[in-house]
């Protein structure tokens, strides 16, 4: 049995710049994997099976991990299978990319177990627009529907994640946007601010999330989460993805740990985690 780590991600800014003729939205977003996430245990066996702990999720073709495994085994022409156990530690429908990361990690794991010439990025895209991002394992500027990836060098950054126990459907978040498109991120200014790190002047990182205003308007607890992160002394709070998880930057890992402890005591029913950006390749 081998254990694989499936990292969460946050969007360090998310712009929706337009809509394509096929109905999908054109994005411009900086995504970065984190040191928190789910784990998968995978054992080669004759048939495919899935077990899930930590959440009530289906274990058949309705589950993205199962679909990813089935897709790889079929594409590779493998007559064997795998017994997969998904240990779900991230909140569901939370804007942290958990399902996409689980699927990508499944593809990487099976490619190690059963090597083949399968084009993993192309296969990943059939499973979801965010899935290809998790294959290389580093920060990237994503455009298109999220599948056009440009690697970006970022320093390790401590941060705190706060999820107010609200599930937000990505489809709803994009529908609520109602065509209010936004300009691309100012990547130069954004990277400059992130490289400098949170400073005592209180200058905010120049990122935004185009989906945040309408999601927050419908889910006031997300506004509470953003305010709570700032109240804990953290910097530049923002909603990640389509929500509902929010994050804010810390000046040090010690500050992140202390703020996470404070927030966990303040909101005992919410999910809280101190984390930092992850540079390593996933699957280790």
UniProtKB/TrEMBL annotation:
The active site is at 9, 130. Residues 63-138 form the GHMP kinase N-terminal domain. InterPro entries: GHMP_kinase_C_dom, GHMP_kinase_C_sf, GHMP_kinase_N_dom, IspE, Ribosomal_Su5_D2-typ_SF, Ribsml_uS5_D2-typ_fold_subgr. This is 4-diphosphocytidyl-2-C-methyl-D-erythritol kinase. Coiled coil: none annotated. Keywords: ATP-binding, Isoprene biosynthesis, Kinase, Nucleotide-binding, Transferase. Pfam families: GHMP_kinases_C, GHMP_kinases_N. It catalyses: 4-CDP-2-C-methyl-D-erythritol + ATP = 4-CDP-2-C-methyl-D-erythritol 2-phosphate + ADP + H(+). ATP binds at residues 91-101. Its EC number is 2.7.1.148. Pathway: Isoprenoid biosynthesis; isopentenyl diphosphate biosynthesis via DXP pathway; isopentenyl diphosphate from 1-deoxy-D-xylulose 5-phosphate: step 3/6. It comes from Deinococcus petrolearius. Catalyzes the phosphorylation of the position 2 hydroxy group of 4-diphosphocytidyl-2C-methyl-D-erythritol. Belongs to the GHMP kinase family. IspE subfamily. Residues 208-268 form the GHMP kinase C-terminal domain. GO terms for molecular function: 4-(cytidine 5'-diphospho)-2-C-methyl-D-erythritol kinase activity. It is an enzyme of class 2 (transferase).
């Amino acid at each position: 049995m081998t254990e694989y780590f499936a990292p969460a991600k946050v969007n360090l800014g998310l712009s929706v710049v337009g809509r394509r003729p096929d109905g999908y939205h054109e994005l411009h977003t900086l995504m970065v994997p984190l040191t928190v996430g789910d784990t998968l245990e995978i054992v080669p066996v004759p048939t495919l099976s899935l077990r899930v702990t930590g959440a009530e999720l289906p274990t058949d073709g309705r589950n993205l991990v199962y679909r990813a495994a089935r897709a790889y085994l079929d594409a590779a022409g493998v007559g064997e299978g795998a017994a997969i156990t998904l240990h779900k530690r991230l909140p569901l429908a939370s804007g942290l990319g958990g399902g996409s990361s689980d699927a990508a990690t499944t593809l990487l794991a099976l490619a190690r177990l059963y090597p083949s010439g399968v084009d993993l990025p192309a296969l990943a895209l059939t499973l979801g627009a965010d899935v290809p991002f998790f294959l290389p394992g580093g920060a990237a500027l994503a455009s298109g529907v999220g599948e056009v990836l440009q690697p970006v060098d970022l320093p390790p950054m401590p941060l705190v994640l706060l999820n107010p126990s609200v599930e937000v459907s990505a489809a709803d978040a994009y529908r609520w946007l109602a065509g209010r498109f936004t300009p691309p991120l100012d990547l130069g200014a954004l990277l400059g601010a992130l490289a400098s790190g949170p400073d005592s002047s209180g200058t905010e990182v120049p990122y935004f999330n185009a989906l945040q205003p309408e999601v927050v308007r419908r889910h006031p607890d997300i506004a509470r989460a953003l305010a709570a992160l700032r109240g804990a002394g953290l910097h530049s709070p923002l909603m990640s993805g389509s929500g509902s998880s929010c994050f804010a930057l810390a000046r040090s890992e010690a500050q992140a740990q202390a703020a996470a402890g404070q927030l966990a005591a303040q909101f005992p029913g919410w999910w809280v985690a101190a984390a930092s950006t992850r540079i390593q390749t996933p699957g280790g």
